[in-house]
Write a structure and sequence with these properties.
Layout: E1 7-10, H1 14-25, E2 30-34, E3 49-50, H2 63-71, E4 78-79, H3 85-98, H4 101-128, E5 135-136, E6 140-144, H5 147-162, E7 168-170, H6 173-179, E8 189-193, E9 197-199, H7 202-215, E10 219-222, E11 225-231, E12 234-239, E13 244-247, E14 249-252, H8 258-263, E15 272-281, E16 291-294, E17 299-304, E18 307-316, H9 326-338, E19 348-356, E20 363-367, E21 370-377, H10 383-398
Parallel strand pairs: 1-2, 1-14, 2-10, 4-18, 6-16, 14-21
Antiparallel strand pairs: 3-9, 5-9, 6-8, 7-8, 11-12, 12-13, 15-18, 15-19, 16-17, 17-18, 20-21
Helix pairs in contact: 1-7, 1-10, 4-10
Length: 415
């Protein structure tokens, strides 16, 4: 790999593979280097949703009034393990600042631009990759248990309306049942987004893209990169085994593991890890007809292949603490209560790491002091959704072309 003409993408998840494909289209020879032999990473176990209407940041106005109650519940929708609380305190301060109204308006506008661009890139990619059979068009139901919960959601829906996102509100259990039978009548209202898309199976979609990447001459190799260094003719990459790799340019797209690589060249980016949990149930578990979001409880129910995946919530616990699969069991128990016909046996539990930044926007841009190193990480739970657009933007940045949208809001040094 002593080749300074190649571009190396660090990370073989959905962001990394899209960056690599974008660079191939612009004539670059690309090698993906990933720390795992299983090249699917966290992309394997996501909910399969292209959530283009999810433009509101997690740090929305009023979030800090809810956070203390959530944080006191170790199995609630937002949790911080006590032994991680001190370490994450600086990130939480930035999260609080990101919830100020003027910052929310700015981040929502930037997120909307990235969503619109990513939607157009996805549709072009699906067509070019002959992957239409992997896309589902079944919409999404956001469900509410009370009039108060529904009314509290209205400002976010008004923001979506201003940005041209179609939806309609449902005001009774009967209206909800017309779209998705079998939901507990305790849910008195819902909002339906008809243009919501899902992928049939995230793992199958990833494998499809990886196959196309390899057919175009791309390589995927296993190595854990521990440090970067830019020099006159390119970038040197140091591996955990002491090997040195060389590249003309490098893209850091290693998700939750990207922070330390950025620090190795002096960039301190407040990246944290949302640990997401889910359970995938076998075929026949429930007659699911649309993607279900239980926002008040922080989880979703979605179709994956012929099965059902129940997952979500946010545990800000870093990379090293052991998984707490009680969180997956709590979500499954709630799903069975809210969907009384759900068969909860035979499920497979999973935990993945979502790379998260305080303002809910990813980092997309060159390292401030190292122009041959480009960052593409921090998409939180929107990695799949924004992957196609991010790949195109990064490919333009690396090849020094004008980007289709303004990427200033995503710059690495914004914090």
């Amino acid at each position: 790999m002593e080749n300074t003409s190649q571009t190396i993408v660090i990370g073989a998840g959905i962001i990394g593979i899209n960056c690599a494909i974008g660079l191939q289209k612009r004539g670059r020879r690309v090698v993906i280097v990933d720390r795992e032999s299983d090249t699917l990473g966290a992309s394997y176990g996501n909910a399969g949703a292209f959530a283009f209407s999810d433009i509101m940041p997690l740090a929305a106005p009023g979030i800090m009034r809810k956070a203390p109650k959530w944080l006191l519940d170790p199995l609630g929708p937002l949790s911080i393990p006590p032994r991680y609380a001190l370490q994450i305190a600086p990130w939480m301060l930035r999260f609080w600042r990101a919830s100020w109204r003027d910052r929310v308006e700015a981040s929502t506008a930037a997120q909307t631009a990235l969503m619109d661009f990513s939607r157009s890139c996805l549709m072009a990619q699906i067509k070019a990759a002959d992957a239409g059979h992997l896309l589902r068009h079944e919409g999404q139901l956001q469900l509410y248990q009370s009039a108060a919960e529904f009314n509290a959601s209205l400002p976010a829906w008004q923001a979506r309306a201003r940005h041209g996102i179609p939806f309609r509100h449902l005001q009774s259990a009967e209206e909800i049942a017309a779209i998705q039978p079998g939901i507990s009548p305790e849910f008195c209202a819902a909002s339906f987004t008809p243009e919501w898309h899902n992928i049939v199976d995230p793992a199958a979609y990833m494998q499809h893209l990886i196959t196309l990447f390899r057919q175009a001459g791309g390589e995927i190799r296993r190595a854990k990169i521990t440090a970067l260094a830019q020099h006159d003719t390119g970038v040197s990459l140091t591996t955990a085994t002491g090997q040195t790799l060389q590249a003309k340019d490098v893209v850091v797209a290693s998700g939750a593991w990207s922070r330390d690589l950025a620090r190795s060249i002096g960039d301190r980016i407040p990246l944290e890890t949302e640990r997401g949990y889910n359970t995938t149930l076998p075929a026949g578990a429930f007659d699911l007809r649309t993607h279900l979001t239980f926002g008040g409880h922080g989880f979703v129910v979605t179709r994956i292949g012929d099965g059902i995946r129940v997952g979500g919530a946010v545990e800000l616990g870093g990379l090293n603490l052991p998984p707490n699969y009680k969180r997956a069991k709590v979500l499954l128990d709630k799903a069975q209560r809210f969907l009384p016909g759900l068969k909860e046996t035979g499920g497979e539990q999973w935990m993945g790491f979502r790379p998260s930044l305080p303002d809910s926007l990813p980092v997309i841009g060159r390292s401030p002091g190292n122009t041959r190193i480009t960052y593409a990480f921090g998409h939180g739970h929107l990695g799949l959704t924004q992957s196609s657009g991010t790949g195109e933007l990064v490919a333009d940045l690396v090849t020094q072309r004008a980007t289709a949208i303004d990427v200033t809001a995503f710059r690495p040094d914004r914090f």
